[in-house]
Amino acid sequence: MLKKLQKTQIYLLAGAGLCAFLAGGMVSAPQAGKTLSRWLKVSQSKQENPSQTGKVKSVVFALLSQSVPERLTKLTEIAETGSYPDRERARYLLASDYVETSQGKKALSLLTGLEKDFPVLAPYILLKQAQAHNILGEDNKAADLRRKVLKEYSQDAAVVKAIYAVAQPRLYDQAIAKFPSHPLTWEIIRKRLKDNPNQPNLQLVLAKYASDEPGIVGILDQLVKQPQLEPANWEIIGSGYWDNNQFTKAKNAYIQAPKTATSLYRIARGLQLNKEQNQAVVVYKQLLQEFPTAKETPIALLRLSDIAKGKDSIIYLDQIISKFPDQAPQALVKKAKILESLKDNQSANTTEKLLLGKYSNSEEAAEFRWKIAQAKAKNNDYLGAWQWAQPITINNKTSILAPRAGFWIGKWAMMLGKQQEAITAYKSVINEFPQSYYAWRSASILGLNVGNFDDLRGMNPTIIFPQRSVPPAGSQTFHELYLLGQDRDAWWQWETEFKNKNQPTVSEQFTEGLMRLTKGEYLSGIDQIAKLEDRKIPAEKAEYAALSQQVSYWQARYPLPYSKEIEKWSISRQLNPLLVTALMRQESRFQSKIKSPVGATGLMQVMPSTGAWIAPQIGLDFKKLNLENPNDNIMLGTWYLDHTHQQYSNNSMLAIASYNAGPGNVAKWLQTIPKKDPDEFVEEIPFDETKNYVRQVFGNYWNYLRLYNPEVSGIVTKYSEIHPKLPPTPN
Hints:
By secondary structure, this protein is mainly α.
């Protein structure tokens, strides 16, 4: 259990990790002088597969996390004596390792004839053979193989690699025409634009297929200067600007695009954000008239209510309430507030009753109930607070407030002397909301061995890394590339296959998220995966529900990048590595070069002034450090996290609050918040940002613990039917 683990080193039982960044492991401080390979234990755990195609069992996939020298012997054995398809997989992976280490002859010995034995990867095998011949200086043979790919696999995404390598203009045209979504095609286009920027047709390809790529706004800025663009082209440009938060530019483009509900809404919204309110009203009203049932129409009505004042706002809100039930709760809340401001309390009460009656399942109803429950609790009316909060746990189970309400029902029951009712409430939170911060707080209060604010710092939880799961979307070729760790090829293959970016299925969106993670785009990857829970269509909600029962889904939402650096500096600072990981996820979503508006930089969002203060205290020259470098950033960030812990007697809640708000504010709160209970203290933090930050960091910590630590996972499994079980720990 966790407290016992305080006296042990952290073992990483690493399989073929969910993403490339999971490969490898870490060595604890007492064994730092020994080689990493001696301390790794390879997990052969059962694959979790979020798709309906079953689970993949492969000894080759399990070797992916090991370094090239470590896996050499086992891969050689499988390649020589294994059975199909692991034998062929081993040959390909081993050959890839030889290519990466410039051992062309050895690579060819494994690759020759493999395209026939393993046809799912045939064009990639031929291209790998070409690479091996290039290493040996046999460029003519390499060229012949690429021409073979061009001839025999002209419909496969892999052909773009051959085209790119052959570098013939006529073939470039073929790539642009047939594979516009292939990232190498984008590189071909960028090269052509560098030589001749005045090529609108090429710019349009990037605008349509690479709108989320770096530098696209500059491409769009050049494209709009073209004198003759079709309305459909302007729609592509407007969409590109909109997706990159260039709302004024998007508005200007959509003015010249075909008239649709989307284009009209975005024109009006652009005008509104540019403080051109009168013009915005005109366009919003045009949208209402011409597209009265479009999905944008109720949003336009809400925007009009924002622009209007007093009773005029209510006119628009009433239209939403009568015609658009999905948006009616939001409109009712706004209407009630306006009526209260107009001193029409009777009408406001009627509006609130409608919200709580007809729309009791809405998020707005949950928020209304919770606001009243909190007010009653502050007045020590714990029974009244319980009565207002209890319906949230019944009617609003998908609300972000549901676990919070359930937890405080337990706390209030304790205050009322109803111990059994409190225990029941805490157990219910763990059962129904195992992913929530409040599940951890409930488990802690129940006395389960999951740690607390006071003892969490020094815990060293065992971590088991998973094998890569089969993505639920994509071809078999893509799956094989992904599961063999050929991440660049897998990404190119997926981008070529993914045709439905504007309206992806649940499976496609999850797969896209996984691929973003493999690229190191953790912010967008986590965002893609997390947003799946927002699906509204019943069939999509059902698909998400099935996906969310798989541990692979949650591990993708809570990945473990930079594990070596985190381990190194956590051990050095005597910090819980999962707490450091949890904080990092909240601070930066693992984006090493990200900067806040005030200048906080990197993984742990270290301010340059803070880094300059820390550096001499650890004997370093800050000028020689780079806050965008993961090792430097984590080194400084963990020192500061240790510092905040020392300030507050190793209370992690106060340390985390101080990391966000500064020690001065925390010191002030300790004097002004007369609560001894840590949960009440968190609720009373006057900065909403810090209050949410504390809950989110520890919510992150809890999820890492339940998703990667087998003992805690087992504890949660006893209480929750929906908590995804970890695979059995290998012997």
